[in-house]
């Protein structure tokens, strides 16, 4: 009979001292112990302190997984989960790096629990007293969930420690990474129950939990993340009539950030408040949020309802899918997508202007004209659509906004690797047509702003020109009209 293999996933964010104690408590259980095998996966989640990277030297039997960026609690656990499933683990234990196992028979009892997802009894200290967590109850009015301090029927169990059968992940991919932190465990448990899996508490086994030792390192940012996750959870699970109640509670959560706001400049203040207010308006109006992702050409939509902009830097359509590009645009895109709610959002990609202004003709010259401009455009479009398709495959509704027309002639664009203005006009128009044709063939929504703002010679019409290469805010009503025509935006 094949012994069950358990994969224990521990996510560390700049907290090596507590993580060390968690790993010690796991290593008490020998991998050769009768009845099961144990593999431990340590995810160093965007850690910046040198001591975290040295943990694997102190614990050579632990498998280290490194993420260069902080993927949040959900993303970090999913990274460990992916490795555990690849290694053939039949069960996965998610345990916080500020938790330690108390019970010597922890795994034996967990394997026999009968639940698909099992929580131990969580013990922690609050106001000098020992408190036990028996699971949580959902408040369907305010979204202010509470922990049961005595036995009772729970709606969910804390993500501080969840012992899960691998079969669960055949129906549920893992934690929803739209919840960077907070509420991801509630969402996970509700999805599991909806999929027909039994979740429950095994009170005869215990862990000790040192509350919020890692999240406290986030400082004031913690409240911002909590408020965002609260709103996302409420939008997803609470009834419509509770909207004014959970909105008020969310504003209360944000009010705790007033000291942060008072220290901020006006621009920073707007950027802090706008996402929450935009989300509330979108919920009230029953319309999606439109997340514009691209290069500097997204800035004219900044702080304009219902758009949220995500600037990837000097990203190109050609290299958007490359994990080795100098701009790191692919990594930035993945981090951005992990923070967006799939159910209430539309992702709009806006890239290509840099390709048309520089990259395509530069590649043409670099290849000594052995490849035609048409071939380079086809390759650029193919690379671009591959990433858009991958995003759609993750469950997002996607659209593409056409590239910005060629800007006016300036000395800055007279260098030898730039084509002349007429050639750039031709490249941009050809890129636009190829992208539209191939996107529509794939069933991807294409928003043809180009035809509305381009002048007869291919440049930007004066009334839509912000500077020599960028559009101004006058294009926003046109963009909303295009979204409405595609039945994405209805008021």
UniProtKB/TrEMBL annotation:
Q: Tell me the InterPro entries matching this sequence.
A: Nucleotide-diphossugar_trans, SGNH_hydro_sf
- SUPFAM superfamilies, sorted: Nucleotide-diphospho-sugar transferases (SSF53448), SGNH hydrolase (SSF52266)
Name the source's superkingdom. Answer: Bacteria
Keyword annotations for this protein, in alphabetical order, are:
Glycosyltransferase, Transferase
**Does Glycosyltransferase show up as a keyword for this record?**
yes
Q: Report the CDD domains cross-referenced here.
A: GT_2_like_c
Whether Repressor counts among this entry's keywords is no
Database matches in Pfam families? Glyco_tranf_2_3
State any single GO MF term. Answer: glycosyltransferase activity
Query: PANTHER family per the record?
Result: GALACTOFURANOSYLTRANSFERASE GLFT2, RHAMNOSYLTRANSFERASE WBBL
Family classification: Belongs to the glycosyltransferase 2 family.
* Name under which the protein is recorded: Glycosyltransferase 2-like domain-containing protein
Species lineage: Bacteria, Candidatus Collieribacteriota
């Amino acid at each position: 009979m094949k012994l069950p293999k358990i994969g224990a996933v521990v996510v560390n964010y700049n907290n090596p001292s507590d993580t060390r104690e968690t790993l010690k408590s796991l290593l008490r259980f020998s991998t050769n112990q009768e009845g099961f095998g144990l593999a431990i996966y340590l995810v160093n989640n965007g850690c910046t302190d040198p001591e975290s990277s040295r943990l694997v030297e102190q614990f050579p039997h632990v498998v280290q997984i490194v993420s260069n960026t902080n993927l949040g609690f959900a993303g970090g656990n999913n990274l460990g989960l992916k490795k555990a499933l690849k290694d053939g683990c039949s069960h996965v234990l998610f345990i916080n790096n500020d938790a330690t196992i108390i019970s010597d028979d922890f795994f034996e009892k967990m394997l026999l629990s009968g639940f698909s997802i099992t929580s131990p009894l969580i013990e922690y200290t609050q106001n000098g007293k020992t408190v036990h967590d028996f699971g949580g109850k959902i408040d369907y009015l305010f979204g202010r969930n509470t922990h049961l301090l005595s036995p009772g029927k729970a709606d969910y169990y804390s993500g501080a420690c969840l012992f899960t059968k691998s079969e669960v992940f055949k129906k549920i991919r893992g934690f929803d990474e739209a919840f960077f932190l907070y509420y991801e465990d509630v969402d996970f448990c509700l999805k599991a129950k909806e999929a027909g899996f039994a979740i429950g508490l095994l009170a005869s086994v215990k862990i000790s939990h040192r509350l919020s030792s890692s999240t406290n390192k986030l400082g004031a940012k913690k409240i911002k993340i909590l408020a965002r996750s609260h709103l996302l959870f409420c939008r997803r699970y609470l009834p419509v009539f509770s909207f004014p109640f959970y909105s008020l509670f969310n504003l209360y959560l944000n009010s705790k950030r007033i000291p942060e706001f008072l220290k901020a400049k006006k621009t920073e203040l707007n950027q802090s408040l706008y996402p929450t207010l935009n989300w509330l308006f979108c919920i009230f109006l029953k319309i999606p949020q439109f997340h514009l992702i691209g290069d500097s050409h997204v800035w004219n939509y900044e702080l304009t309802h219902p758009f949220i902009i995500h600037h990837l830097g000097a990203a190109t359509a050609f290299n958007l899918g490359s994990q080795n590009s100098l701009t790191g645009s692919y990594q930035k895109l993945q981090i951005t997508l992990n923070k967006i709610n799939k159910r209430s959002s539309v992702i709009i990609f806006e890239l290509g202007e840099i390709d048309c202004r520089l990259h395509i003709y530069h590649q043409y010259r670099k290849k000594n004209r052995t490849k035609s401009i048409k071939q380079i455009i086809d390759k650029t479009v193919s690379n671009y659509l591959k990433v858009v398709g991958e995003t759609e495959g993750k469950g997002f509704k996607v659209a593409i906004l056409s590239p910005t027309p060629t800007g006016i002639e300036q000395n800055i664009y007279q260098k030898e690797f730039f084509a002349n203005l007429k050639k750039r006009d031709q490249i941009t128009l050809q890129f636009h047509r190829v992208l539209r044709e191939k996107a529509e063939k794939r069933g991807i929504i294409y928003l043809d702003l180009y035809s509305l703002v381009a002048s007869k010679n291919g440049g930007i019409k004066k009334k839509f020109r912000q500077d020599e290469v960028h559009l101004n805010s006058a294009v926003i009503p046109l963009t909303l009209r295009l979204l409405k025509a595609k039945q994405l935006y209805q008021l």
